[in-house]
Amino acid sequence: MSEPHVIIAGGGIGGLATALTLQQIGVPFTVFESVRELAPLGVGINIQPNAVRELQDLDIGPDALDTVGIPAREWALVGLNGNDVYSEPRGLLAGYNWPQYAVHRGQFHMLLHRTLVERAGPGVVKLGHRVTGYEKNSDGTVTALVQKAGGTLLREKGTLLLAADGIHSAIRATMHPDQPPIHWGGAIMWRGTTRAKPIRTGSSFVGLGTHRHRVVFYPISHPDPQTGLAMINWIAELTVDANEGRNTSGWFRPVAVEEFAHHFAGWTYDWLDVPDLLARSDVAYENPMIDRDPVSTWQDGPVALMGDAAHAMYPTGSNGASQAIMDARHLGAAMLEHGVTPAALAAYDARFCGPISQLVLRNRGAGPFGLLNLVDERCAGKFDNIDDVVPPDERNAFVAKYKAAAGFAIEQLNVARPTIAAGASVRSMVEA
Questions:
Q1: CA atoms within a 13 Å half-sphere pointing along the CA-CB vector of 363
Q2: By the 8 A CB rule, do 157 and 177 touch?
Q3: Averaged over 353-362, what is the pLDDT?
Q4: How far apart are CA 312 and CA 298, in angstroms?
Q5: Is beta strand 268-269 parallel, antiparallel or unpaired with respect to 230-239?
Q6: Cα angle, residue 74 at apex, residues 72 and 80 outer, rounded to 5°
Q7: Number of H helices, E strands in the chain
Q8: Termini Cα distance of the chain
Q9: Which CA distances in Å does 11 have to 32, 57, 292?
Q10: DSSP string, 88-135
Q11: How far, in Å, are 309, 411, 418 from residue 357 at the CA level?
């Protein structure tokens, strides 16, 4: 091929972040997305400071992010007795050079899409096109097998193929045909949003309960100036017998709150009424907490996995979207160093496949919510002073270890060089 051209399979957060990165460094690309029309689907997610830094380097800063979310100020775990297990400031208040954002996933997704279309034109995203597999060519390129919504089959040749097609990735299935099925450990999540007054700092992420039975909630909008109400994202979780026969392939269905609210009856405190929060929800969905077993490599010559296609993980660390953004940026950095070549993909794979695969397993083991496991083991969740159960140094070390594994330890992040230097382009690297 005379000019490099990258095919991106999937137009979700990871795929669009990759497209924005390639546009920034001057690499031609096309995004193939299976849905016919993008819509602001989903509820709340968190974007950690390392990923917010990358967004700002893509010129997507606070002015844009404030339209789809709110900077997080606190992360806290609270026992069923209402007493704090652990709390810490987040983002700028914690000393990071960049904030952490809690955003509405769908609105954030649409922000990325609008920004990409404004910068690269509408033709770079092909909706209603699903990449179903690939073939490697003798000249080192790759052919993506694409099915249009109407059933027409296309063969699209590219220099590289990046799989951002999610946990059900057809490209991963082609690369690893013997991979185990999706893993479900028995946790069911009910998700929704409710208009309510924020508590604690006004922008606190709170995990309440135990590691097998909990509610997580945090605001994903700024409060209305007149009513003081914000959109509160909540996740109600319950772990059941994983062998009870549910379809574990990844259901996601609207449900009535009455179907699950009884699991949280009596969770009423002077600072929070969980039954009321659930009952007043705008929308509620049910889905399993699922991931995939790590694979030995994310690369097959000119093809690489990224985002959930590479490392679908439990959301216990609030790190899935952030890691997809980091994948995009590191892929761009690898192309700046090695060109738009399989060597760039090999460098990305060698650096991140092993460590991020370990993060998948760490999240499966409850991630930072593992602190609740310790509390349950030591006092069955009943305590007056948490220091007598899990000393402060042990709590702090537990959370710090997770941050380091996830790539947003403050002491490393604040002094790290930009992943992609301002003004860097593949063309200028080649000419140099």
A1: 28
A2: no
A3: 90
A4: 12
A5: unpaired
A6: 125
A7: 13, 22
A8: 21
A9: 7, 20, 20
A10: EE-GGGGT-SS--EEEEHHHHHHHHHHHHHHHH-GGGEEETEEEEEEE
A11: 12, 23, 24
Rg of the chain taking only CA atoms, in angstroms: 22
The answer, yes or no, to whether residue 1 has pLDDT greater than 60, is no
Say if strands 29-33 and 125-127 run parallel, antiparallel, or are unpaired: parallel
CA dist list (Å): 366 to 227, 263, 360? 36, 20, 10
Q: Which residue in 183, 185, 202, 191 sits closest to 44, CA to CA?
A: 191
Q: Among 42-46, 313-317, 348-352, which stretch is predicted with the lowest mean pLDDT?
A: 313-317
In the chain, % of residues over pLDDT 70:
96
The tokens of 183 are what? 């893993």
* CB neighbours of residue 182 within 10 Å: 16
* Number of Cβ within a 10 Å radius of residue 51: 26
Judge whether 300 and 175 are in contact, CB under 8 Å. yes
Report which secondary-structure segment, H or E, holds 214.
strand 213-219
Quick one: tokens of 67?
């339209």
- Asked whether the beta carbons of 248 and 131 are under 8 A apart, the reply is no
How many other CB atoms are found less than 10 A from the CB of residue 114?
Answer: 13
pLDDT band at 429 (very low <50, low <70, confident <90, very high): low
Reported residue count of the chain is 432
The pLDDT score that the predictor gives to residue 430 is 58
288-333, pLDDT tens digit by residue?
889 999 999 999 999 999 999 999 998 877 788 999 999 999 999 9
